[in-house]
Specification:
Length: 431
């Protein structure tokens, strides 16, 4: 007698209490929620300039061809089994050579651990260094630190950052938060603001961490670590070598975890290769943790990334091409908004410094287009509905203040689409 088919889902009601408190307290990505709304508007036939997701459209920002070819070769050569949990030796060595060449940093291979993009490494860093209830200091707005704090049961110490200080914490803010802190999470160039940390600030912050740890060593306290997320370093504009804490203040190196990936620098968000650089005692545990959750970078991509990173001309060509595409788009957007500001409209933007992001202020709260706008969310909806302009408020990056600042991301859009969006915005503002 044959058994009736069993439906595995949806037949038994299940309330939230069935889930862990961690799962119940989790908040999904606000950016993805907004992006879904935008996709629905586009599907309904509207012309929408989608400046929401921090991702690339491959037609606008293609992955470098040699990297794709390398992945295809590695697949054909049978690299389809498990990689070592800290990454294949060739890629770890390639990262050492790459950082020496591009950033002037010398690290031992034991300090390099590879994973499936930056995210697993950030999560593993939190998990490896921070116990539940311990303090993590991070700027707001910043990308996802509030979520990682929740996942670890840590105590978040958000520092509100302002345009005046380039949307990065000041040394004074960090110094005040250091006692009792277990981790300071910084990111430059920053998502969502697109701004670079200033050299003097980064030096002062690193020196404060070194001094705090000297004090803790004397009393036997555990040290405070710096997690420095530099996934956007290769997208920074200009000739100046990128700032890294370890190059500026070598004494901070034992207490620093550098986070990097090919996701943004090579427009390769879906290929999933990232690395962390830290003290070998830390990388050993990162790798154990990543091994348990299987967050490896796929092996063909590790093989191809190793080949690509040591090919200096190929990397330089990719970097130049990326900068040209970003500058074109961010420049058109920035100049268009500056023109609207000159015409007296209440918009403001921070000059592009790299990344795919522009920080823009729409000071539109009040009575507009027959609506009362009280919050950034109200302004966001107005821009989407009346100007076909899809943007993300800084609140999506844990900033509590309703101060009119938004992130505009150009990774999935063309210059022509930006020009059309600006003209719709101008029409709306004139109304
Ligand atoms: C600052 C920052 N770090 C890390 C990541 C995640 O990178 P990955 O896609 O390599 O996990 C992002 C993605 O948006 C980011 O903006």
């Amino acid at each position: 007698m044959s058994m009736p088919p069993v439906s595995a889902t949806g037949t038994v009601p299940m309330d939230d209490r069935a889930l862990s408190s961690l799962a119940r307290g989790m908040v999904g990505s606000e950016v993805l929620r907004i992006a879904a709304e935008v996709r629905a508007a586009i599907a309904s036939g509207r012309d929408v300039l989608n400046l929401t997701v921090g991702d690339f459209d491959a037609r606008e920002f293609p992955v470098p061809a040699p990297l794709i070819a390398g992945i295809q070769r590695a697949l054909a050569a049978g690299h389809t089994n498990y990689p070592p949990s800290n990454g294949i030796a060739e890629l770890r060595q390639a990262v050492v050579d790459f950082y020496r060449r591009e950033l002037g940093i010398e690290v031992p291979v034991a300090s390099v651990v590879i994973a499936g993009g930056a995210r697993p490494l950030i999560y593993a860093t939190y998990r490896t260094l921070v116990d539940p209830g311990e303090s993590v200091v991070f700027p707001v707005p910043s990308w996802n630190n509030n979520h990682y704090v929740h996942l670890c049961g840590a105590r978040g110490v958000p520092l509100t950052v302002t345009r005046e200080h380039g949307f990065h914490p000041t040394p004074e803010q960090i110094v005040a938060a250091l006692p009792g802190a277990r981790l300071v999470a910084l990111c430059s160039p920053s998502n969502p603001t697109g701004t670079l940390m200033r050299r003097e600030s980064l030096i002062a912050i690193c020196e404060a961490i070194v001094a705090e740890n000297a004090r803790r060593a004397a009393t036997g306290d555990r040290p405070v670590f710096l997690m420095y997320d530099q996934v956007y370093w290769a997208t920074a504009f200009g000739e100046a070598p990128p700032l890294t804490p370890t190059a500026l203040v070598p004494e901070v190196m034992p207490y620093t975890v550098l986070i990097d990936a090919i996701s943004k620098s090579l427009a390769a968000t879906g290929l999933r290769v990232g690395w962390a650089i830290a003290h070998p005692a830390v990388t050993a545990r990162l790798s154990d943790l990543l091994g348990h959750v299987g967050a490896w970078a796929p092996k063909p991509e590790q093989v191809a990334t190793a080949e690509f990173l040591v090919d200096a001309p190929a990397f330089q060509a990719a970097r130049t091409d990326m900068e040209r595409r970003l500058r074109e788009r961010l420049g058109v957007l920035y100049r268009g908004l500056a023109r609207l500001r000159e015409q007296g409209h209440p918009v403001d933007a921070v000059e592009p410094q790299g990344t795919l992001y522009l920080s823009v202020r729409f000071a539109l709260q009040g009575e507009r287009c027959g609506r009362t706008l009280r919050s950034n969310e109200d302004v966001r909806r107005l821009l989407l509905e009346e100007a076909g302009l899809a943007v993300v408020p800084f609140q999506a990056f844990a900033l509590p203040d309703e101060d009119g600042w938004f992130r505009l991301s150009v990774g999935a859009t063309s210059v022509a689409a930006i020009e059309r969006g600006l003209s719709r915005l101008e029409q709306m503002l004139n109304r």
